[in-house]
Write a structure and sequence with these properties.
The structure is a single chain. By secondary structure, the chain is mostly helical. The chain has a single domain, classed as Substrate Binding Domain Of Dnak, Chain:A, Domain 2, CATH 1.20.1270.360. It is elongated and about 55 Å long. The termini are far apart. 37% of the residues are buried.
Length: 120
């Protein structure tokens, strides 16, 4: 068995994208906690999207960090999920936590879309 070649460090763009994904993941988790306290049917729809976005952003960051050959496709999908989550959060513009989450989702979407395009 040959010794493995060390992986090159993440590029600045990849580091920024991983950071945006992890920030978005954290904000989605915080927002889910806030939504659980509020309850209501509208909140449940937002909760589903928050759960999807939280999981997708964490997975996307993990795949970029381990240099998965599928990370570009994951970034493209992550951007779509983040867009959906931002839109869902914007459905309740009076809630500052949801607005904070929408902003984190938009930033992550932008970064992931750039990463997906860079690898295409």
């Amino acid at each position: 068995m040959q010794p493995s070649t060390p992986m090159p460090p993440l590029t600045k763009e990849m580091q920024d994208c991983v950071e945006a994904c992890m920030t978005c993941h954290g904000v989605c988790e915080e927002t889910m906690s806030c939504c659980m306290q509020l309850g209501g049917q509208a909140q449940m729809q937002v909760m589903r999207t928050l759960m999807d976005c939280s999981e997708m952003t964490r997975l996307c960051a993990d795949m970029m960090m381990r240099r998965s050959p599928l990370s570009a496709q994951m970034c493209a999908l992550c951007a779509r999920v983040c867009d959906m989550c931002a839109e869902a959060c914007m459905s309740m513009p009076d809630d500052p936590q949801l607005m904070r989450c929408a902003e984190a989702c938009r930033r992550c979407s932008t970064m992931c879309r750039a990463m997906a395009g860079a690898a295409a």
